[in-house]
Amino acid sequence: AVVSTQSTGIIVRLLDENTTRDTIQGYFSAFGAISDVDLKIDEAGKSRGFCFITFTDGSVIDKLVEQTHIIDNKEVVVARAIPYKDRTKTNKLFVGGLPESLSEDEISEFFVQFGTIEKIETVIDQDTQRRKHFCFIVFTSTEAVEKAVNGKNPPRSVVHKIGKFRLECRKKFPEGHPIQKKFKEMRKQQMEIYPGPSLDTFGYSYYGYSSYGYPATFQPTYPHTFGYGGPLRPNSQRGAFGYRPY
Fold first, then answer.
1. Buried b (16+ CB within 10 A) or exposed e, 28-53
2. Beta-bridge partner residues of 34
3. Are 16 and 104 in contact (CB under 8 A)?
4. Which of 40, 125, 126, 139 fits a 20 to 30 Å CA distance from 243?
5. What is the pLDDT of residues 154-164, one digit of tens each?
6. What is the pLDDT of residues 23-64, one digit of tens each?
């Protein structure tokens, strides 16, 4: 699961281009005291379709996001504004390169150094009835995963050694998460350029290869994805709270 936050802000999407800041403040002030309304506008002065609202008391948000909201005769989408730094946290760790000889107890004994383990999820190959060469470790906290990967986000990973075995570890997000979707798209593009062996059900392959389909000794140069190595957007294009409106 991805971590949630008890922030005092919300993001409102699908606003009409003619909706004004005063209209937004007038509508949402009925739910609680507002300290700021940050409406994003284009060069023509019209709404870009979304805004950020900060309440003085965040307790009003839970009920607010469950309701339907119509502003200027248009239904809008309201969600809690989660800072980008929190959207990159998860309590699930992907571990690849697992040999059959490494038991779940040995895996648990090693990774418990990062935090309390809730469960270890393995996948059985239906053809061979053997455990596939990867697993997912679910911790009770996101901090454990941050420690295990040194705070790195996919496609970056960290290698841990259990005895003579090298295990590749990285964060695992739900399939619909922006980072996970970008990662899968990047992996697809790389596989078209550097085709490797057939991937398993989850798209990972570990028969002498890394998770990206490259030989274990090959280190690819990643393109400008996830904000790594690419140009930074000016602050004017970023949302409030450090939140990026995907």
1. beebbebeebbbbeeeeeebebbbbb
2. 55
3. no
4. 139
5. 888 999 999 99
6. 999 999 999 999 999 999 998 888 999 999 999 988 898 889
